[in-house]
Amino acid sequence: xxxxxxxxxxxxKGSRTLSLAKYLLEKLDGNICEEKLEDLVFPQINExxxxxxxxxxxxxxxxxxxxxxxxxxxxxxxxxxxxxFWDLSFPSILKQYFEQINVLGITFTxxxxxxxxxxxxxxxxxxxxxxxxxxxxxxxxxxxVNALAKGFYGINETHFIKAEGLDIDGANVDExxxxxxxxxxxxx
Length: 188
Description:
Elements: E1 3-8, H1 16-27, E2 31-36, H2 47-58, H3 68-75, E3 78-82, H4 92-101, E4 108-110, E5 116-118, E6 124-130, H5 142-151, E7 157-163, H6 173-185
Parallel strand pairs: 1-2, 1-3, 3-6, 6-7
Antiparallel strand pairs: 4-5
């Protein structure tokens, strides 16, 4: 059975992004493994930690617990990232997550020419976001994750699912969410 990794960067009770992501997850077949980012304890990134991590990578000791999130990411068949659009990007905890999973020897390697090559199994990545305002074309949420997915993780099929303008005066929130759900439905 395929594994769907659900990277949950939603922290608010009643999160609209989480609600939309759950709608998507209902459409996917497979065993869903949730990585609830607010429950992860990220190490303090300092010289001591980097020396430890670099030493483990050099010895290829990838079963160390600090690499658990990277191993789960690399082994997933499909990935769903749920991240609300805050202050022109996503919550900082998602950036911390990507710093932890971007591990040479687990999620990617380099070719002889220095070009990143994927070690991940996933064939698809879905990125779900909601915004009170509008998500600009040059935004740094999906664009960042899409670049990592395609450039490092070899995930060439990515989908951006969004519901925006939710907090604009007069917005029909139910209609906006319903349209985002139709966008999800169109993927299947």
